[in-house]
């Protein structure tokens, strides 16, 4: 009996390790594979989100050695659409033509792939605003009812 438990726990641990390994090789935002840098070959690329005014919220991919001001800076940097095209060119992913729709062609021509996933930070910020508005509405209604009752009792 204990032998079966140890075998099952070993199997579950190895499946957890495989799940962890596979999750680290795929981007969390896009699900694209995070390949080894094609320029320097020394590290796996990173999937990040831009927070600059010009590119706020856009997903990009870069080598961890692509550091501004570094002496041996790697030049690997792609926006999401460019990285997708590079993955297709390298045959890391395949695109089936029948999966494309007419609406996607317009977006593909623009050079910007919209992000349909909303980050947890965005959701939390919107929830905070909504909670403040609801609290304010309750306060206004409460004050209105209190004033109404005081006026009626006069």
UniProtKB/TrEMBL annotation:
<keyword id="KW-0472">Membrane</keyword>
<protein>
    <recommendedName>
        <fullName>GRF-type domain-containing protein</fullName>
    </recommendedName>
</protein>
<feature type="domain" description="GRF-type">
    <location>
        <begin position="37"/>
        <end position="83"/>
    </location>
</feature>
<keyword id="KW-0863">Zinc-finger</keyword>
<dbReference type="InterPro" id="IPR010666">
    <property type="entry name" value="Znf_GRF"/>
</dbReference>
<dbReference type="GO" id="GO:0008270">
    <property type="term" value="F:zinc ion binding"/>
</dbReference>
<keyword id="KW-1133">Transmembrane helix</keyword>
<keyword id="KW-0862">Zinc</keyword>
<keyword id="KW-0479">Metal-binding</keyword>
<keyword id="KW-0812">Transmembrane</keyword>
<dbReference type="Pfam" id="PF06839">
    <property type="entry name" value="Zn_ribbon_GRF"/>
</dbReference>
<feature type="transmembrane region" description="Helical">
    <location>
        <begin position="136"/>
        <end position="153"/>
    </location>
</feature>
<feature type="compositionally biased region" description="Low complexity">
    <location>
        <begin position="8"/>
        <end position="17"/>
    </location>
</feature>
<feature type="region of interest" description="Disordered">
    <location>
        <begin position="1"/>
        <end position="27"/>
    </location>
</feature>
